[in-house]
Amino acid sequence: MEHRLVNLTKAANLIRNSNKICVFTGAGISAESGIPPFRGEGGLWNRYDPHILEIGYFLTKPKESWEAIRTIFYDFFHQVAPNPAHKVLAQWESDGKITGLITQNIDNLHAQAGSVKVYEFHGNCDRLLCLDCNKSYPSLSVDLKELPPLCPDCFGLLKPDFVFFGEGIPPLAYQQSIEAASSCDLMLIIGTSGEVAPANHLPHIAKRNKASIIEINREPSPYTKTITDIYLEGKAGELLPELNDLINLNN
Ligand code: APR
Ligand code: ZN
Questions:
Q1: Are 43 and 33 in contact (CB under 8 A)?
Q2: What's the CA-to-centroid distance between 104 and ligand 2, angstroms?
Q3: Tens digit of each residue's pLDDT (9 = 90 or more) over 120-144
Q4: Annotated catalytic, 122?
Q5: What residue owns the CA closest to ligand 1's atom 7?
Q6: Is there a single domain that holds both residue 212 and residue 118?
Q7: CA atoms of 251 and 242, how far apart (whole Å)
Q8: What is the pLDDT of residue 151?
Q9: Within this chain, do residues 27 and 85 fall inside the same structural domain, yes or no?
Q10: Residues 56 and 68 placed together within one structural domain of the fold
């Protein structure tokens, strides 16, 4: 049997036999939904300077920062939909296989696909927060023609409810993610370059707790040659349905 199929079969067996799977996703899982990743081929940071997402820049130049944020995140936000990768993970959760899904993504696609135990490590695009009165609004309910958007209640500055560089991780998501990574017997790492801390420590926590690690990516990451047990090279939107078919084949 060719190497690729051997790996796929081994991965499918691990997934079939586990009901304590922790999933850890990055921008790559949403690439086939049309959202560009941040790094690598077609990455956003090849076209924009990441400093537009630094909290200091946002607070001192909210209009300029919002202009880039609107283009990158909101202009087509409501046009994107979950792809087969998101849907397979939602199915495995309803089959009782997944104990927690930690995502670095702010695109809300896991929730839209039906995943429930989603820990949004970097927050979510779908709400805007008033920095003065702390009221939050669904982002689609706020008119982004005039920038920066102001709170309809107190005219305070509205900020997307996702984590900017220089901000802390939402405490509840942090705690839930550590718990999920510490108590799983299998971690699926899907579509992440593993470049950003502290999110990138989570797979190491799983490994330290003797979990097996399956990694899905289009190219190797810092995890591949260190903690990954089975590396599946390819697109998440194709590999997850393939794994799901293999699992169902032998049921
Ligand atoms: N299927 C699987 N993996 C893919 C696909 C795909 N179709 N397309 C791209 N990838 C992989 C890339 O090879 C890369 O390793 O997804 C990864 C995307 O990496 P990044 O763009 O760095 O995204 P991520 O790891 O989530 O970035 C972490 O950085 O900018 C911050 O806050 C932002 O949450 C983000 C964090
Ligand atoms: Zn307000």
A1: no
A2: 27
A3: 999 999 999 999 999 999 998 999 9
A4: yes
A5: 235
A6: yes
A7: 15
A8: 97
A9: yes
A10: yes
Are residues 174 and 230 located together in one domain of the fold? yes
| Number of domains within the chain | 2
> In terms of domains, do 15 and 113 share one?
yes
Average pLDDT over residues 191-211: 97
Going by pLDDT thresholds of 50, 70 and 90, the confidence category of residue 1 is low
User: 144 C-alpha to center of ligand 1: Å?
Assistant: 27
The pLDDT tens digits of the residues spanning 7-42 come to 999 999 999 999 999 999 999 999 999 998 998 888
174/246 same-domain check: yes
Which residue out of 51, 78, 110, 122 is catalytically annotated? 122
Say if residue 148 is preceded by a cis peptide, omega within 30 of 0: yes
Residue 62 C-alpha to ligand 2 middle, in angstroms?
A: 16
Ligand at minimal distance from the CA of 142 is 2
Task: State the ligand closest to the CA atom of 221.
Answer: 1
Whether residues 46 and 87 share a domain: the answer is: no
Average pLDDT over residues 161-180: 97
Pair of tokens at residue 151: 């709170």
133 and 235 part of one domain = no
Supply the range of the domain harboring residue 232: 1-35+81-122+168-251
Query: Is pLDDT at 219 greater than 70 in this prediction?
Result: yes
